[in-house]
Structure formats: structure tokens, C-alpha cells
Design a protein that fits this description.
15 helices, five-stranded parallel beta sheet, Rossmann fold, 378 residues, 3 domains, Transcription Regulator spoIIAA, alpha/beta, 20% strand
């Protein structure tokens, strides 16, 4: 459900600034030009937050606030007061009124959002969900005072459409995150003065950056720092020296990318699974995640031909054998025809596993397609 925010100010410009600040978030904005209109709007809208100007015609902010606090229905609504005076006496006066917070005009939209974020759980408006794949661009923000690490990660993901932006300090990183909304943030935990942990809290307290997945980064041998990072709320820990394949897998997971296109494709009415040269645990997990969905999709669409192309695979791993055996069992249940493609060397390796000993291996995808065709009567 959308949050409701009521802004009460005789300045149309201020009301416009407030509405613009909350525009990216799932909020409904109501407006009033004075305290009289504000009380009526508060009773009608029952807002989650009121942003109230101090000086207004007809009924000022002090009088409106007093009436709010005397109303049993409205008294619990948090109020942020706006004032043109920053003097200590004025601030103490506002504090005694029972407001949640205050701001001195003129103010920046970011500052307003920060204060509102302490009161409300601001959520960015849900956009139409587009499934992102490995072919879609993404922005990775690295916060590290060591240029060599930023360069290493940049080179490590050079084969992807992802872009790396590096910042050496927290203030620069926060400004970058607010302006560009990165898909992932990586923070070095070796930054001086606990800056890495402090920066995490800043990102989490700002409604603009709150939802971005953030990783901590430290050396592999510092187990205490890794444990502390996990308890502090990081999405995970990246250890140095950096394993780039593991790094990319972590990014894929938190960005919720659909990697099925990396392994699955359609060849006419045939579903093809193509496996890479090296079968790692990450590859097996990714394929198994999508395999049942693909098989079910085949049945739903009336397809019944499935090719497992293992022609690139060099070494047969037990996880691969287990996946093939499981798929063959599902074939019988779903009435799907399966053909497996592999090299003669792969065929020999399969003989070491009883689950695949009698599996027929086709030498090429073309031959596998022919094998689907019914035998001609002699």
C-alpha cells in the first residue's frame, strides 16, 4: 500500500519541491496551503507523515500542530516542521511542540528524504518487471582506495556488458550511488577509520540507496572481519585474492539475472541444452535451477524433443552424471525424447558410471536430430 504524505505550506514552490522529492517513491502526496486546509486534509487523508510549515496565513503551523495533538485520531501522525529560522531559540521552541524533526528553509531534497526515511519505510516505485539477462548492461560501484583492485575487477568482468565505476572514499561513493543507482556496490572493509562499515549504514539509511545489494571485501585470511561483515548486513563477502568466476556468480545472484539463455536455446521445435567445457558447481546449480522449468515448458507447448549437447565437455564430473540420470527419469514421466551429444572420449568416461553406462552418445547435434526421425521401413 502506498504511503500518504501531506505537505502544508503557503508556498507553492515548497509544495512542488516536496512532491518532486518523493516522486520516485511509492507515495501519494496531498497538499494544503494553510493550517485550516491542512487539518481538513489530515482528517480526510489520514497521512503517514505531515510536512508542516511554521509560518502561514489563517492558521500557522503551531496552531495546526496543537489541534493535531488534541485529536485522538490524528495525534500520532509524525510531523516534520519547516522553518525559515535556524536560531537556537527557534529550534528549542519547535522541539517543545512535539514534532518528530525539523528542517530549515531552503533545504535540499536529499536532506528531506533522509529525515523522512527515519520515519517512513520509503520504497522506490515498482517498475514493470523486466527479466534481465547476462546480455543486459549493469553498473558496479567499487569503493576502494587501492586503484589496482578497481582495475582488477574491471578487467575481470571485461567479457560482460557490465560497467565498473571506482571511488576511493565514502563521500564520493554516496554521491555516485545517488546519481547513478548502481546495480551492485562493493565496499573495501580495509578503508581507514571503519569507513567501510559506516558507509554501509549510510547507504542503508538513505531511501535512494537502501535497496541496492552491497558486498564487503577483505583478504581471505581475515576471518574475523568476514564474520563481522556478515553480521553487519552485507549481502556477502568478496575475498582477496579475488576469484573472478565466483565474483561474477555473486553479482548474477543478487541482480537476479536470468542465465538460462547461456545454456538453453531453441532449434526449431527442439530444446537444446549446451554445456561448457568445464562443469563447475556453479554451472550445475544454474542448469538444474532452470532445467525443470524448461522441461515443463516443453510439455506445456507440445514439444517433446530435447538435446543435451556435451560436445564441449572435457571431464565428466559426478554432478553431471547425476543431472543426466535425473533428466532421463523425468523423460519417462513427461514423455520427452532425449538425445545426448558428446565426444568419443566423453563416451569412454561415461562407462565408469553405472548410471550412464548404456547411454547412447551421438557424435553431433546434426546426428542427434536425425535420431529423432522415425526409422524408415525397409
Amino acid at each position: 500500500m502506498s504511503l500518504k504524505i501531506l505537505t502544508v505550506d503557503d508556498s507553492k514552490t515548497i509544495r512542488m519541491i516536496v512532491a518532486r522529492a518523493f516522486q520516485p517513491f511509492d507515495c501519494e502526496i496531498a497538499e494544503a496551503a494553510n493550517g485550516v486546509e491542512g487539518l481538513a486534509a489530515a482528517a480526510r487523508e489520514k497521512p503517514d507523515l505531515i510536512i508542516l510549515d511554521l509560518i502561514m496565513p489563517l492558521m500557522d503551523g503551531v496552531e495546526m500542530l496543537a489541534k493535531l495533538k488534541s485529536d485522538p485520531v490524528l495525534k500520532s501522525i509524525p510531523v516534520i516542521m519547516l522553518t525559515a529560522e535556524a536560531g537556537r531559540e527557534n529550534v528549542l521552541k519547535i522541539a517543545k511542540l512535539g514534532v518528530r524533526d525539523y528542517m530549515v528553509k531552503p533545504f535540499k531534497e536529499d536532506a528531506l528524504l533522509e529525515k523522512a526515511g527515519r520515519v517512513l519505510n520509503l520504497q522506490v516505485k515498482a517498475k514493470e518487471k523486466k527479466v534481465k539477462t547476462l546480455d543486459d548492461p549493469a553498473l558496479i560501484l567499487i569503493v576502494d582506495d587501492k586503484p589496482a583492485i578497481i582495475q582488477q575487477i574491471t578487467e575481470g568482468i571485461s567479457g560482460t556488458p557490465w560497467k565498473v565505476v571506482g571511488k576511493a572514499a565514502g563521500a564520493e561513493a554516496m554521491a555516485e550511488a545517488k546519481s547513478s543507482s548502481p546495480d551492485v556496490i562493493v565496499i573495501s572493509l580495509s578503508l581507514p577509520n571503519e569507513e567501510g562499515f559506516n558507509l554501509l549504514q549510510q547507504f542503508r539509511s538513505n531511501p535512494v540507496t537502501r535497496g541496492i545489494p552491497i558486498f564487503g571485501m577483505c583478504v581471505k585470511t581475515d576471518l574475523d572481519l568476514q564474520a563481522r561483515a556478515e553480521k553487519s548486513g552485507f549481502a556477502g563477502v568478496i575475498t582477496k585474492p579475488i576469484d573472478m568466476e565466483s565474483l561474477k556468480t555473486k553479482f548474477i545472484r543478487v541482480m537476479e539475472l536470468d542465465v538460462s539463455t547461456k545454456y538453453f536455446s531453441l532449434d526449431g521445435e527442439i530444446q537444446v541444452l549446451t554445456l561448457p567445457e568445464k562443469i563447475t558447481d556453479q554451472v550445475t546449480a544454474a542448469v538444474e535451477h532452470y532445467l525443470q522449468l524448461k522441461l515443463n515448458g516443453m510439455v506445456d507447448s507440445g514439444m517433446n524433443k530435447f538435446i543435451m549437447d556435451l560436445s564441449q565437455v572435457v571431464q565428466v564430473e559426478p554432478s553431471l552424471v547425476k543431472m543426466i540420470a535425473s533428466t532421463i527419469q523425468k523423460r519417462q514421466i513427461l514423455a520427452i525424447k532425449i538425445r545426448i551429444v558428446g565426444s568419443p572420449a566423453l563416451k569412454e568416461q561415461f562407462k565408469s558410471f553405472k548410471e550412464t553406462y548404456e547411454i547412447k552418445i551421438e557424435p553431433s547435434v546434426a546426428e542427434a536430430k536425425k535420431a529423432f526421425q522415425p526409422a524408415k521401413a525397409s
